[in-house]
Amino acid sequence: MHGHELSPSTIAVAAGRPDRVPGGPLNAPITLASALVPGGGSEYGRQGNPTWAPFETVLGALEGGRALAFSSGVAASAALFDLVPTGAVVVAPRGAYYGTVVQLVERDRRGQIQLRLVDIDDTAQVIAACEGAALLWIESPTNPALEIADIETIAHAATQAGAAVAVDNTFATPLRQKPLELGADFSVHSASKLLSGHSDVILGAIVTADDRAHAALEKRRTVLGAIPGAMETWLAVRGMRTLHVRLDRAEANATELHRRLSASRHVAYSRYPGFGTIISFEVTGGAAAAQKMTEQSDVITYATSLGGVESTWERRRRHPGEPESVPEGLIRLSVGIEDVEDLWIDIQNVLAAVV
């Protein structure tokens, strides 16, 4: 386009569209087929589906690499962990999403890897742990404590030590953080969350600028059968068209709610990294009050997922697999795009009822 570099918000809307031909569709159609005619690169649905391409094109353009869609975020991370040599060292945050930690702990117990857990916001600790490692897994912000890593510094140190670097970019999205530009080899997403944005998709993705790594991950996807559905990728593309406006609105809401929660006498503390849509906070009444609070709200939905247009919250330690480092009374609030005053009134009402 005359040498002009498109902004991320425009890329989210414009990338991955079909060719402009008379009578052609504006949106890429859904291909519902388990078999395809030979000669076109894929002849079986596990090898490829034309509906995956628009999603992978949009996300790849936003992240600055080539994207691969997977059946879920966990399937994406599992495919990446499968590439780690047997017995090699993997460094990861001890406060990461428990679905990730569970995978790594199980692989460590089976002798497939040697796992080193670190505090990802302790830069010196992370750098020291990367000595002799094959993979550094970064989550920033972490889920649910919202710790922030110095991605550029630790990615550079890990690379110098010979380790590959992967960043779970689910909470930040490529509109707020581009791991590949910060020195990472892989950017990983649970696309079920902010990317698709409507709580109706289970989908994962990995983005890399390394062609050999892309080919290896594509092979793992095919061999393991961790493929996305056509409907899921189509819905994710539709959701990504509005990512920038959803994210802007939800961030504005989150910023204001964090300010008010921090000033409330019923709240022990509130954490918000300054971007994204997630707030983590504790109420003064402890775990029992936190649980009742999440169950009694009218506007905010009691649910485990996040990143949708609707606000959701839950007490994270209600899940048996949640790390013990997460406080019993911590509430993870995923802020949506509702009117912020309605959200605040809802929070105030349940605070007054349970604390």
TrEMBL record:
Molecular function GO terms recorded: cystathionine gamma-lyase activity; cystathionine gamma-synthase activity; pyridoxal phosphate binding
Cellular component GO terms, alphabetical: cytoplasm
Cofactors that this protein relies on: pyridoxal 5'-phosphate
Keywords annotated in UniProt: Pyridoxal phosphate
Residues annotated with N6-(pyridoxal phosphate)lysine modification: 193
InterPro entries named among the record's database cross-references: Cys/Met-Metab_PyrdxlP-dep_enz, PyrdxlP-dep_Trfase, PyrdxlP-dep_Trfase_major, PyrdxlP-dep_Trfase_small
GO BP annotations, alphabetical order: cysteine biosynthetic process via cystathionine; transsulfuration
Protein family per UniProt: Belongs to the trans-sulfuration enzymes family.
Protein name: Cystathionine gamma-synthase
